Amino acid sequence: MTTTETRQPVLELRHVNLHYGSVEALHDVSFSAYAGEVIGLVGDNGAGKSSLIKTISGVNVPDSGEILVDGTRRHWRSPHDSMAAGIETLYQDSGLAPDLSIGSNVFLGREKRRRGLLGRLGFVDQTSMEHEALEHLARVGITIPETNRTVSELSGGQRQAVAIGRAIAWARHVIILDEPTNHLGARQSAEVLKVITSAREHGLCVLFISHTLPHVLEVTDRIIVLRLGRVVRDAPTKEFTVESLLGAITGLNE
Amino acid sequence: MSTSSERPESAVAGAPAPSRLRRVVTNQQFVLFLVLLALIVFFGIRNSLFFRTGEFSNLLTDFSGLVLIAIAETFVITAGGIDLAVGSTTAVTGVIVAGWIQPLVTHNVNQAVVLLVGTAAAIVIGGLAGGFSALLITVFDLVPFVATLVTYSVGAGLALVISHGAPVGYNPSAIYWSASGVGMVTWLVAIVLLVAIVLGVVLHLTVYGRYNFAIGSNEFAARAAGINVRRHLVSVYVLAGILAGLTGMFFYIRSGSGAATTGVTNSANLVAIAAVVIGGASLVGGVGRWAGTMLGAAVLTVVSDGLIFINVPPTWIQVVVGALIALAALLQSFRRRSRRMT
Ligand SMILES: Nc1ncnc2c1ncn2[C@@H]1O[C@H](COP(=O)(O)OP(=O)(O)OP(=O)(O)O)[C@@H](O)[C@H]1O
Ligand SMILES: [Mg+2]
Question: Is ligand 1 within 6 A of the CB of residue A62?
Answer without folding.
Answer: no
